[in-house]
Structures are given as structure tokens and as C-alpha cells.
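Appendix B. Raw example, untouched.
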Amino acid sequence: MEKLKILRKSCNYTQKYLADLLGVKTKDISDWESNKSQPELKTLRDLAVIFGTSVYDILSNNPVSTTKWQPWQKEKIIESFWGHIGILLCNSNNIKWYPITSATAQRIQDSLDYDHEIHDQLLSVYTLNNHFLIINTNSIKKISLLDDSSDAPENWEIPWDGYQGLGAEEYYNLIEEYFWDEEYFYENTSEKLQLVIKDLIEENNFTGANVDEITRSINIYFSDNTSESISIGYESNFIEAITNNIEMGISKFISFEDSNYEIHFISTENIGLIDIPLNLYKKQLQLYEKQIQQFFENE
């Protein structure tokens, strides 16, 4: 786990200090970093929370997005908290804002400054508070980038989970699991982290209904300032529809099936913003990637 070593050093943690945080031996940390062994899921979740990220990011080949603010970070494999993106929809006076990494901010700026095709495409953005945003650059008034040292404008909408989210992407996975797969949650979560999750649930007055909305529903904001919330399952074709649309440019419709088996055809020219729970997107993305891999293996 090369990423573990990089994350540890980025926080100036010694192997012993990290071992003490986790309640393991220093040799365990050394073995994980040198790929002699791998921690169990309970420990991976603790690591994700310590570093402000997710188990998915630690184990995947993608860069790690962390809520920790590290302006000195030069390691490209780590994308740390930078500030916020603000999106002003048509027919609205309030800017929706989301915390993002420095790499995301740079990618957005480069796309809008130098990509002459951007107005014929959908712009995708990962945030640090469990959102995957699809922005139709033809149907919004403005995109703002604001670093953490700046004051927020008065007309910016603060999301339910505050200025910078809950603190680690893994929290959203664990809260969902607590309500919908409780046995798995207790089997694969350390006792210390279980208490943290229960405190978060109590502090935010979470119930099964609002957790379902936060982690399984997409929100579509149209250019006329109306919106629609649609619940989708993990095996929905929504990710395939979105992925193809981003890669191929805007087509007439995005079509997908919701959790009630209703098929939706959404006109892309009327969409300003699609807001998808990031944990839902990543789980669907994993399924989609497996399907692609199986297809080529069968071929």
C-alpha cells in the first residue's frame, strides 16, 4: 500500500504514531506499506477517517481526495482540500457551494479557460462532501472558485453538512450502512468508529428516510429553477448514461431507470446541474467497470 506511506508522511505521522492511533503494532504499519500484508476492512475504515478520505480512494488507482488542508502538498497522488466551487443557476440568486480539492479547482479553471469545446460538454466535478456534480455549462449563469482564505459571499447556500462536509467521505458510506446493513456495519467497523458514527447520526438527526435521500437520490436542477429528486438503485443504468454523455458530449436526452423501475428521459438542454451522491456514483462506477471488464474478457 504505497498510498498509505504517502498519506502518513503527508501528515508528518511516524509509523509508531499511526500504529498507536489504530491500536496495532508498528510492524503492522511497516508490513502494510511494503505490501507484505493488508489491513482488514475495519482498519481500512479507520485509516480513511484519519486521513479524511474513503476506503475506495485508498485502494483504487485514482488519486486520494482528502478533506485535510495541505497547501504544501506536492505529491500528485494526494488531492487536498483547497476551497469551494460555487454554481449559480439560471433564474436563481443563490449560489450553491461545495468543498473541492486544489487539483479539482485547477482542472475546472483550465477547462473553462482553455477548452474551447467546453460549452458543448458536461463538466463533472467530485466534491469533498459526497457529491458528484454534472454541470451543463450552457444552462448556468456562473461558476465561482473561492479558496479557503477568502470570505464567502452572502448569497452562497451552505449545504446541510456545513462548510466542509462531515470530515471524511467514508462517513457517508458508514452512515448509510448503519441504517441499511446494520449487521455488516457492526462486523466491519471498529468499536471506536461505531461510536463516532452514532454521534454523527445523533448530531444530524438522521433517520432512514433522510439518509436514503442523502445517499441514494439524485437531484436534478433545471434551467427554469425547478428541481426533481429521483431515487436510483446501485444497479441502475444512470452511471452508464452519464458517462457516455460526458465522453461523447451533450445528446438530446439522458435516459435511466429509477428504483421504482420508471424510465426517465431528461432533456439535457434544460438541465443546469445534476447532483449525485458520490458514494452512490462510486459504487455504480465499480459495477460498470466490472461489466466492461467482463465484456472484454468474454470477447
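End of appendix B.
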